[in-house]
Design a protein that fits this description.
heterotrimer, A mainly alpha, B mainly alpha, C alpha/beta, A: mainly alpha, MetI-like fold, 12 helices, C: alpha/beta, D-Maltodextrin-Binding Protein, domain 2, 2 domains, 11-stranded mixed β-sheet, two-stranded antiparallel sheet
Chain lengths: 274, 320, 436
């Protein structure tokens, strides 16, 4: 019993400095967002005077609410879209038998192998010829196509942990594969879905390069590209930038905290079942 | 009252059906469902992933400034790559950074997950969140923050070292070619640890606790339990994490570009940053070199494919 | 059992909802996006898109646009200001590749390439010589090739030696003492003795080192058009020319004398000013955009005291040849339907009532003589006067491949490298890069 206690204390002791290191840059970011610009590099690490003008600055000068809403919309639709595509195909690759299954799977994985910077111009040209340039639909299509394979990869790994007998029993009971999928499999995939939601939300929320290139009308831009216009070639408005970044991190943290609970709960459930 | 199906029933019945005659209803419905389920993802892939990849491969055989028609040059770009000292340097740096970062991230991810698993659950949630936070912002943001921390004159790192009397350790971290790579590794590990820890943590949850109790009763200590139960059970997860680490390493761009731009003098140049400089960079000069840059994309793709194939092959063996 | 049903219902609803949302989302998004998708007219008006990273005039652009649109009801201006050139160039190049060039755009160093490629218009034709003659010669020359001019300068830049009078005094260096490079070297020794760096300089990326080095070539040649020829490798000019080698030798001498802070090749463009305003260096070699940054980043006390002097000359009594060109300019799309509207707006922006206040309010250096006459900020006035005096010389490589000369030069800044060998490498590098 006391052994356990010692183990826990030791672990906490080791993790604590780690946590400080992890959190430090964000603490810096938060502090910078609340100080005057000319004290950032000149003054002490903890500012003597705190001010929230940077937040007002960030809110008004770059039309924060508009772009925040754009990001929210684009990210939510992407997450849902990716979920739909990834769970369906992830399940198929994990549990269904069909010819060329493994080849097709590896083929889809090539999505993960291209550096996105290289694809900018081909994607631009393609969207243009499809008439989807400068539309949020075009951006959504690109996001979902580019992200679904990775989510599919995660879901497949997750589905592989589900016992085959479950599916066999359902097949014996009759019903199409789709029904089996909906009634038997989906209820068990909460941790998998939670994982995908966390990572997909995070990845799409932070995306910059593609949105910046493909959307020309500034009103349609999501938050990240607009935030970074606060970084200039020669000088940057650090307080406003860090204020904007702090604000932009909030939704992601919320999603993470909420999904994390489901994620862990689901994992534990999976362990008990096994 | 519905008849309860016993496990034997299921196994017997499915055995009866395992004479999978080609075209048997069971097999066929699976086939149809299989293709149907993957169709949406696959179609999107064909249109918006495969086509751009093929187009990029085509561009790598041309010389193109981004307007007018690309000029076909066969494999000139690739021979140029072999003779280009910056390209050679970029390849070496890419491989070194990727290898070291992946190894550290895999190891530390596991250690962190184990530690988090051990401590009190409520504390665990907080710690997990804090460890994951660096991954919540984009790589660009982490690079910007860390660049300021590393700044030789006004950066927090040097100021802290000075404050505790370790002046001699102060360094121009990103400007000295001896310290620039380790500095970059720290930032990459900082940003990626949370992700790995989370995946490993999930993996740990699915290990049957009875295994540990049984081993403890047999007299195994914590370290032995770790080596013989934890690590083998996590083989698939480890394979996943290693291959993701390799993929991210080969494609790396944001962090390095923002922090050093590939400098000082190309000492931190990787395939991704060089590619970007050639295509869009302010340092590519007056003519974008999209053909040559595409050749680097192709090389990156080849590296990534090799990494994935290696991982799939290794984990398949593990299942046997 | 009951829980599973609940779960099923939830999942089914989620799926249905997802598909519905996707469909609805696409429909809505298509509605929202189609207004500006691809078309160059909006409600009957000609749309002129203006793309740049000129954040300096972020507050001024909307006012200019408002005034212009009020007077021209058939033209709509869509302004987009990116953050840095690295954020801007991918978007611009994608647009160029798609045949969709913005009507007015910042050409960066692509100015001449896009010009000869038919992307940007010949402004000598479209704006006329009368309009162009108000611009500084250097601003016009940098954008001119074979008698055609492909862009106009928007913000001129001059480089100078910003200095901290207190630190100079402390080192026993007189403010008027530094006229030649030898003077600077002597002063550097005194400054280092007080524990400060003499001059802060950024050489990361290596192209920044060209800002310092290229004017040395002009100083040796005493002719600003020499580099313009070298930039294009025209008429057989090569980096192995003795003038260039001499410039490299001079550069090496300056570096070896410890004039700069250690690690210049690792110091980026935003870090060098930081070294200066945190008073770790007595001087800073940087461009005329520096005052604007200092007003925001440095303490008010510092802003009151720093001053600027000309780049040292090669010998007493010789011209100083301070680096100046207009890195920020405007090009006009040759192929756009609304090119005429674009030219209209361009003329408006440069008109006497608009251009000077715009530049003044943003603490920027104008590229025309008439506007330069009306500058108010003292330090800007001083630096612009060098331009007016004709001290300007090129420092930006516009020619194909010229930028590659920066990499071999880095060796000199790192303290190694033999000038003749480096010159040869520069020639090689530029020729290789040309081929790409």
């Amino acid at each position: 019993m006391s052994n356990r206690w010692v183990g826990k204390s030791f672990a906490t002791f080791v993790l604590l400095p780690f946590c400080l290191l992890m959190a430090f840059p964000f603490v810096w970011m938060l502090l910078t967002s609340m100080r005057e610009q000319n004290t950032i590099f000149n003054g002490p690490i903890i500012p003597r005077k705190f001010t929230v003008t940077a937040y007002k600055d960030a809110w008004t000068s770059i039309e924060f609410p508009l772009h925040f809403w754009n990001s929210l919309w684009i990210t939510s639709v992407t997450v849902i879209g990716v979920l739909v595509f990834a769970t369906l195909s992830g399940y198929a690759f994990a549990k269904l038998q069909f010819p060329f299954r493994n080849t097709l799977f590896v083929l889809l994985l090539t999505t993960l192998m291209m550096p996105s910077t290289a694809l900018i111009i081909p994607l631009y040209l393609e969207l243009k010829s499809l008439g989807l340039l400068d539309t949020q639909t075009g951006l959504l299509v690109l996001y979902i196509s580019g992200s679904a394979p990775f989510a599919m990869f995660l879901m497949r790994a997750f589905f592989q942990t589900l016992p085959d007998e479950l599916i066999e029993a359902a097949r014996v009971d009759g019903g199409s594969e789709l029904t089996i999928f909906r009634r038997v499999i989906l209820p068990l995939t909460r941790p998998g879905i939670a994982t995908v939601v966390i990572f997909q939300f995070l990845q799409t929320w932070n995306e910059f390069l593609i949105a910046n290139t493909v959307l020309r009308n500034t009103d349609a831009l999501p938050l990240q590209p607009v935030l970074f216009t606060l970084m200039g070639q020669y000088s940057t408005n650090w307080p406003a930038l860090t204020a904007g970044l702090t604000l932009s991190v909030v939704p992601v943290v919320i999603v993470y905290v909420r999904m994390q609970r489901q994620f862990v709960a689901g994992m534990m459930l999976g362990a008990v079942k096994n | 009252m519905a008849t309860t199906l016993t496990r034997e029933d299921v196994v017997r019945r499915s055995a009866e059906r395992t004479s999978y005659r080609f075209g048997s209803p069971l097999r066929r419905s699976q086939r149809i469902a299989g293709y149907l389920f993957i169709a949406p993802t696959f179609l999107l892939f064909l249109a918006f992933v495969l086509w751009p990849i093929l187009y990029t491969a085509y561009l790598s055989l041309t010389s193109w400034g981004g307007f007018g028609s690309p000029r076909f040059v066969n494999f000139d770009n690739y021979t140029r790559m072999l003779n280009d000292p910056v390209a050679r340097r970029a390849m070496v740096v890419t491989l070194v950074l990727t290898g070291v970062t992946t190894a550290i991230l895999t190891f530390l991810g596991l250690v962190a997950a184990v530690l988090v698993n051990v401590i009190w659950p409520k504390v665990g949630v907080v710690v997990r969140t804090i460890l994951f936070i660096p991954g919540i912002v984009s790589f660009v943001v982490s690079a910007v923050l860390w660049k300021l921390i590393y700044d030789p004159n006004i950066g927090t790192l040097n100021r802290l070292l000075g404050a505790i009397g370790l002046d001699s350790l102060q360094h121009p971290w990103l400007a000295d070619h001896r310290t620039v790579l380790p500095a970059i590794i720290v930032v990459t590990v900082w940003g990626g640890l949370g992700f790995n820890m989370l995946i490993y943590f999930a993996g740990l949850q699915s290990i049957d606790p009875n295994l540990y109790e049984a081993a403890a009763m047999d007299g195994a200590n914590t370290l032995q339990q770790f080596r013989h139960i934890t690590v083998p059970s996590l083989r698939v997860v480890t394979g996943l994490i290693v291959s993701l680490g390799l993929l991210n390493g080969f494609k790396a761009f944001d962090v390095i570009f923002v922090m050093t731009g590939g400098g000082p003098n190309h000492h931190s140049e990787v395939l991704g940053t060089y590619l970007y400089s050639l295509a869009f960079g302010t340092t590519s000069g007056s003519i974008p070199q999209l053909g040559y840059a595409s050749a680097f994309s192709v090389v990156t793709m080849v590296l990534c494919t090799l990494a994935v194939i290696a991982q799939l092959w290794l984990t398949r063996r593990a299942d046997r | 059992m009951g829980e599973r049903h609940e779960g099923t219902v939830r999942r089914r609803t989620v799926l249905k909802g997802a598909v519905g949302a996707l469909g609805l989302g696409s429909a809505l998004a298509a509605c929202g996006g189609s207004d500006s998708g691809g078309g160059t007219t909006s409600g009957g008006k000609a749309v002129v898109r203006m793309w740049s990273w000129y954040g300096e005039q972020e507050d001024q652009f909307p006012k200019l646009i408002e005034k212009f649109e009020a007077a021209h009801s058939n033209i709509k201006i869509e302004n987009r200001v990116f953050g840095t050139p690295d954020q801007y160039l991918p978007a611009l190049q994608a647009a160029v590749a798609g045949g969709d060039v913005p009507e007015i755009f910042a050409p960066h160093t692509r100015a001449l390439t896009y010009g000869t490629g038919g992307i940007s218009a010949d402004l000598k034709k479209d704006l006329g010589d009368d309009f162009l003659k108000d611009f500084f010669d250097s601003a016009n020359q940098e954008y001119t090739l074979d008698g055609k001019q492909y862009a106009v300068g928007w913000m001129a830049q001059t480089f100078g030696l910003f200095y901290n009078p207190d630190l100079l005094k402390r080192a026993g260096v007189g403010e008027d003492e530094i006229e030649t490079w030898d003077d600077l070297i002597a002063a550097a020794a005194k400054i280092r003795a007080t524990g400060k760096h003499p001059v802060a300089l950024s050489c990361n990326p290596t192209t920044s080192s060209l800002d310092f080095f290229l004017p040395l070539i002009t100083q040796v040649a005493d002719d600003p058009t020499f580099y313009l020829k070298l930039d294009q490798l025209k008429d057989g000019t090569s980096y192995e020319d003795p003038k260039v080698v001499q410039a490299i030798e001079l550069q090496k001498k300056i570096v070896k004398a410890g004039v700069f802070q250690p690690g210049t090749t690792g110091t980026s463009g935003d870090q060098a000013p930081q070294i200066f305003y945190t008073e770790k260096a007595a001087m800073l070699f940087n461009g005329s955009w520096t005052p604007q940054g200092l007003t925001k980043d440095a303490t008010p006390a510092f802003n009151k005291k720093y001053k600027v002097m000309k780049t040292p000359a090669i010998a007493a009594g010789k011209k100083h040849w301070t680096a100046n060109q207009a890195g920020a300019g405007w090009a006009v799309s040759e192929t756009s339907k609304n090119k005429d509207a674009a030219i209209e707006f361009l003329k408006f922006m440069y008109s006497a009532e608009q251009y000077s206040p715009t530049m003044n309010d943003s603490n920027s250096m104008p590229a025309t003589r008439s506007a330069a006459d009306r500058i108010e900020l003292p330090i800007m006035k001083q630096m612009t006067s060098w331009l007016i005096d004709g001290e300007g010389c090129p420092h930006i490589p516009f020619g194909p491949g010229s930028v590659a000369a920066g990499d071999p030069l880095a060796k000199i800044f790192d303290g190694t490298g033999d000038p003749a060998a480096v010159a040869k490498e520069m020639q090689q590098a530029v020729q290789n890069a040309k081929g790409g």
